[in-house]
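> forwarded from #structure-qc
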């Protein structure tokens, strides 16, 4: 695989043997599997807490995090773990009035008792929507691959599906087919101004409804039910309406942006369909046109009345390809956009969760100065290795379904995925299999890599360099001083010529 790279990309090759790294990864993975009631049930978020004095929830089993875990186990034919995981989640499906039908975000066994988190223990105290939407998708994938159709037809599974559908298809005062959620209601579970109808939730809803249809069809084959027939009709129609809605309002290209700028605003009555959400041309961000050019298109992050979110969200766009929300031509347009903007979305790291990041006042106002979502970190532009798995899956699925379409583009996409794969082989073992990457250096061993990434990134970069609070970092400029008044350490000498020349800029 490595020999297919050009001389330009030789630096991304791993310093150690690929087979050794993969073997190490598998060993690390096996250590994350935990038991409940004596049976393996899933993978914990982390093996150790990041701090000794503060207990966090990294020792719990998160439903969203275990989706790729379970799919990997299915490929290894370890079906018993997957079935146990699905059964435990089903057992914990909420029966309370306020959260009826909701699956837990995470769960843990304490003193022989299962405890699920439905939002009461999270940072934002918000019930997650994505966990509930992921469960039917994973359930159908398990049933289809394992051939365990008896599990899919079982009364517990069918009842769980109906409870979930009662929740997500419940009539609201909104006249759209999307699911409205508050901030912090999915993978981005800290404040990031993603309230409303975020892309990730809507494409998950699309995949969830299609999986529910497949599972209900299993039951329908054995049992005639008028209520089930009616639910199938309603769900199929919802899938169709949701797909059309996403393509109409979320999909943007350079051409559609020009149309948006010319749309009439402040419409009322029967003519408002030209601009249903009253989007003013002034809200289109300045970076968007140059970023798009004629390179392709993507699904924007959110559509809200007067306030669309034009940020690029990697997971939502990847899932839109995987679940068939985007037609083949639009999928290739998305691939072209990612390929041309790889410096913004990948650089020399795993895939970035969103672009662009929020900075300064926007970060302060929209995140509440969230200390974890600071610029270029975590959900605010951080790089997540797991995202490459979803995007790579989208590319490979497209190539499998449409092998003869735009062969050159797809070969370029495969090369991009391969390069990113090798890059992760370089990064992950060094970072002890980190969940995400931000430009942060905590030790001297990490500093050179961070500086290299800063240099190789074409756009603005903020790097977080940790030092002890007692340390003086030279050179330094005191508050209120000019740059030619820079203070140096005792073993450094001031270049008088440079100092005098610098006064011109003061």
């Amino acid at each position: 695989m490595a020999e297919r790279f050009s001389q330009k990309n030789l630096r991304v090759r791993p310093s150690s043997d690929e087979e050794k790294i993969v073997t190490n990864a598998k060993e690390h993975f096996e250590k994350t599997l935990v038991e409940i009631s004596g049976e393996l049930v899933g993978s914990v978020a982390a093996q150790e807490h990041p701090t000794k004095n503060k207990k966090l929830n990294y020792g719990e089993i998160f439903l969203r995090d275990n989706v790729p875990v379970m799919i990997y186990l299915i490929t290894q034919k370890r079906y018993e773990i997957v079935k146990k995981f699905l059964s435990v989640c089903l057992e914990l499906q909420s029966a309370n009035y306020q959260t009826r039908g909701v699956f837990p975000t995470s769960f843990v066994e304490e003193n022989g008792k299962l405890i699920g988190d439905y939002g009461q223990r999270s940072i934002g105290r918000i019930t997650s929507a994505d966990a509930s939407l992921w469960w039917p998708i994973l359930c159908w994938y398990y049933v289809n691959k394992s051939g365990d159709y008896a599990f899919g037809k079982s009364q517990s599974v069918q009842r769980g599906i109906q409870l979930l559908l009662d929740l997500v298809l419940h009539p609201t005062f909104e006249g759209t087919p999307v699911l409205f959620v508050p901030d912090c209601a999915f993978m981005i579970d800290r404040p990031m101004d993603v309230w409303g109808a975020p892309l990730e939730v809507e494409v998950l809803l699309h995949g969830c409804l299609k999986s529910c249809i497949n599972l209900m069809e299993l039951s329908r084959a054995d049992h005639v039910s008028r209520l089930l027939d009616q639910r199938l009709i309603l769900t199929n129609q919802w899938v169709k309406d949701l797909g059309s809605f996403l393509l109409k309002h979320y999909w943007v290209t350079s051409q559609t942006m020009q149309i948006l700028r010319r749309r009439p605003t402040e419409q009322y009555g029967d003519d408002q369909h030209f601009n249903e959400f009253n989007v003013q041309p002034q809200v289109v961000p300045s970076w968007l046109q140059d970023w798009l050019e004629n390179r392709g298109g993507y699904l924007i992050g959110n559509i809200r009345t007067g306030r669309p979110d034009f940020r690029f969200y990697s997971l939502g766009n990847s899932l839109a390809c995987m679940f068939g929300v985007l037609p083949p031509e639009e999928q290739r347009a998305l691939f072209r956009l990612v390929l041309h903007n790889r410096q913004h979305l990948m650089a020399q790291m795993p895939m970035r969760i969103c672009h662009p990041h929020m900075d300064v006042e926007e970060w302060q106002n929209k995140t509440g100065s969230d200390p974890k979502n600071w610029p270029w970190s975590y959900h605010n532009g951080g790089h997540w290795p797991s995202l490459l798995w979803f995007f790579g899956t989208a590319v490979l699925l497209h190539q499998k379904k449409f092998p003869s379409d735009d062969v050159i583009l797809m070969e370029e996409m495969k090369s991009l995925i391969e390069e990113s794969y090798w890059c992760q082989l370089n990064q992950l073992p060094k970072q002890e299999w980190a969940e995400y990457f931000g430009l942060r250096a905590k030790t001297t061993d990490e500093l050179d890599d961070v500086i290299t990434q800063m240099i190789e990134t074409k756009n603005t970069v903020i790097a977080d360099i940790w030092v002890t609070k007692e340390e003086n970092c030279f050179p330094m400029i005191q508050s209120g001083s000019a740059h030619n008044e820079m203070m140096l350490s005792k073993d450094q000498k001031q270049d008088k010529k440079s100092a005098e020349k610098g006064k011109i800029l003061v």
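QC bot note: The radius of gyration is 25 Å. The longest helix spans residues 199-222.
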